Amino acid sequence: MQFKDDGKFITLIMQNEEDFLENIKKIVEEFKKEKILAVVSALGMLKEVKMGYWNGKEYEIHEEKEPSELLGISGVITPKTDPPYHFHVIIGTKDEKVKGGHLISAKVCNTVEMFLTKGNIDVERKEEDGLRKLRIK
After folding, report:
1. Residue 120: how many CB atoms within 10 A of its CB?
2. Which of 103, 40, 93 is CA-nearest to residue 69?
3. Deepest in the core among 2, 12, 52, 108, taking most CB within 10 A?
């Protein structure tokens, strides 16, 4: 993974076979003094994608093993919370199906180009209804 910080935005370029969330953990460590990093945009391909659907009690896990286009991602990186990130993804499969959900895990296929913006909002995560929900301090 390569990244560059211009003071306002962070550009990430992830390489083939890298673990997507491990790269995010590296960014968390690098920018642990930041209060919040929000995803602006990301594109590329993922494989071995595990996504969750919250049924009100737990995540039902769905997996797409084959390489898929990363059509969209939304989320936030909050270095001072546990967990320090929360992402939802939309992927497009080779057979033109679109799938999405809470990102549990994924590997980069070919590349992922991701852009983050920095924020100065203090947040925390609090347990509520089985989820660790984000709250503004």
Report:
1. 7
2. 93
3. 108
Q: Residue 102, exposed/middle/buried by CB under 10 A (0-12, 13-18, 19+)?
A: middle
CA dihedral 74, 79, 80, 82 (to 10 degrees): 60
Task: For 92-112, write each residue's pLDDT tens digit.
Answer: 999 999 999 999 999 999 999
pLDDT tens-digit map of 19-39: 999 999 999 999 999 999 999
The residues that bridge with 38 in the sheet, in sequence order, are 76, 117
Q: Where are the beta strands (DSSP E) in the chain?
A: 2-5, 9-15, 36-54, 59-64, 68-77, 85-92, 98-119, 123-128, 131-136
Half-sphere exposure (Cβ direction) of 21: Cα atoms closer than 13 Å: 18
At residue 7, the 3 state secondary structure works out as: coil
Q: What is the Cβ-side half-sphere exposure of residue 111, based on CA atoms within 13 angstroms? A: 5
pTM of the model: 0.93
